[in-house]
Amino acid sequence: MTRERSMRALLAFASVLMAGCASDGADEVVAGRIAYVNGQIFDGRKFQPAPLVVQDGRFVEAKVETSASIVDLQGGHVVPPFCEAHNHNLGSADENEEAIAAYLREGIFYVGILSNLPRLTDEVRHTYNSPASVDVIFANGPLTASGGHPIRLREFLLDRGNYPGFTRETLPGQGYFVIDDEADLERLWPEILRLRPDVVKIILQDSQEFERRRDDPAFFGQKGLDPALAPLIVERAHAAGLRVFAHIGSAEDFHVAVEAGADVIAHLPARDGPSPIDPADARAAAKRGVRLITTAVLIEQPRRRDNAKLYATVKASQIENLRTLRDAGVTLVVGSDDPRTTSTPEVQHLRGLGLFGNADLLRMWSTDCARTLFPERRLGALQPGYEASFLVLDGDPLADFDATGNIRLRVKDGEAINIPESGE
User: Fold this and answer.
1) How far apart are CA 247 and CA 374, in angstroms?
2) Phi and psi at residue 74, in whole multiples of 5°?
3) Cα 59 to Cα 216: distance, rounded to the nearest angstrom
4) CA pair distance 213, 313, nearest whole angstrom
5) What percent of the chain has pLDDT over 70?
6) 85 closest CA partner among 372, 324, 414
7) Which CATH superfamily, name and number, covers 82-373?
8) Contact 371/364 with Cβ under 8 angstroms?
9) pLDDT at 270
10) What are the distances in angstroms from CA 42 to CA 80, 81, 361?
11) How far is it, in rounded angstroms, from Cα 127 to Cα 130?
12) β-pairing verdict for 291-293 and 331-333
């Protein structure tokens, strides 16, 4: 019997054993209340023994004795759920259920899909945002320039059959929005809002070369918005109650995004060469509460990994930029931007860079990531008033980070999740 099956059996037994029991009649038992005892609870820095009491999907301040059932965690280490801040592998029927199962199996409950086609997403939207699935935000089509990223990528995927029912003529307004000037922004903004994105994504790609690349077909798919439009878009988005996530490719893009008022930076710069972030820009980002999604594992793609000189150069630049951001106090969150997988390889890549301790990595992957995607919700803390979602690990991830892969129990919104083990 697997550990997860053992825990489920123990949970069921405890529910029967404790139902209706009180402590010498002094404390009234509350129906549906569950206490998790004998666990080591992560407080953001360390683990300490404490019970967790759950009712109606929330952690509550209550005595264990008032619980209708008690679950013995047998010394397991309890952490907030993990998170993927940047991906594209949900939002259509293409392997949707497989992707959801992979996320949940790895303890990833929160996902940011930072580019999708709303028409395809509408077909499967009902499969998300429930106790038995992942919670997802969708950016819909990003805002870019004529010939800008991700138009080339979208057309390539279309030709490969990824977007059934679409043509090159119907991709605009779904896969992306082309905005070359203020008139385009004025004309397209009502449609952008009509599709009800959770956030607005803008494309900044080597802004320092915008004028040179603007009309050059050699840079098809390798350019982005006129940087002068970025603050205008941010102003409109914020007025509509929407945050702005900025795709960047260079340190200059980082500067433009921060100055424009973007809320989240969707990448580290320098995936194909060094591009050091100005420490002054990093300090400005920290002061304004701008967060950055790491996506550092992208350098492990074969075209970069197989070029030893490029790989070493970009990896050194990653370390330099992450150190600059960390030292300035910018909140860093884990995201991979790799639709073939989840954020697990990303956090392992960050671990290998040697810049972050295990407690830092846990916060970046769980608490900070979840709050970046869902800032209005009480997520990422194992304390009263917060959503009762957590993982129970076999082993201490502060001592051995690989323990994050040994998940004994998954609880989301107060409900245990049953997931077949991989290969069953």
Assistant:
1) 19
2) 55, 45
3) 56
4) 25
5) 93
6) 372
7) Metal-dependent hydrolases (3.20.20.140)
8) no
9) 78
10) 8, 11, 13
11) 8
12) parallel
DSSP string, 22-36: -STTSS--EEEEEEE
What letter does residue 176 receive in the DSSP assignment? B
CATH hierarchy code of domain 3-79+381-416:
2.30.40.10
Contacts (Cβ under 8 Å, ≥6 apart) of 291: 263, 264, 265, 330, 331, 332, 333, 368, 372
| DSSP states along 273-330 | S--PPPHHHHHHHHHHT-EEE--GGGGGSHHHHT-HHHHHHHHHHHHHHHHHHHHHT-
Span(s) in the chain for CATH 2.30.40.10? 3-79+381-416
Q: Where in the chain is the domain with CATH 3.20.20.140?
A: 82-373
Residue 202 burial (10 A CB sphere; 0-12, 13-18, 19+)? buried
Q: Three-state SS across 364-404?
A: HHCHHHHHHHCCCCCCCCCCCCCECCEEEECCCCCCCHHHH
**Residue type at position 263:** D
**Beta strands per DSSP E along 209-251:** 243-247
Phi, psi (rounded to 5 degrees) for 319: -60, -45
**C-alpha–C-alpha distance, residues 314 and 318, integer Å:** 6
Residue with tokens 């123990």: 10
Interval 87-133: pLDDT, tens: 999 999 999 999 999 999 999 999 999 999 999 999 999 999 999 99
Residue in 97, 149, 348 with CA at minimum distance from that of residue 266: 149
H helix or E strand, kind and range, residue 181: none
Token pair, residue 61, equals 């301040």
- Token digits of residue 6: 């053992």
User: Which residue type is seen at 280?
Assistant: A
What tens digit of pLDDT does each residue of 140-186 get?
999 999 999 999 999 999 999 999 999 999 999 999 999 999 999 99
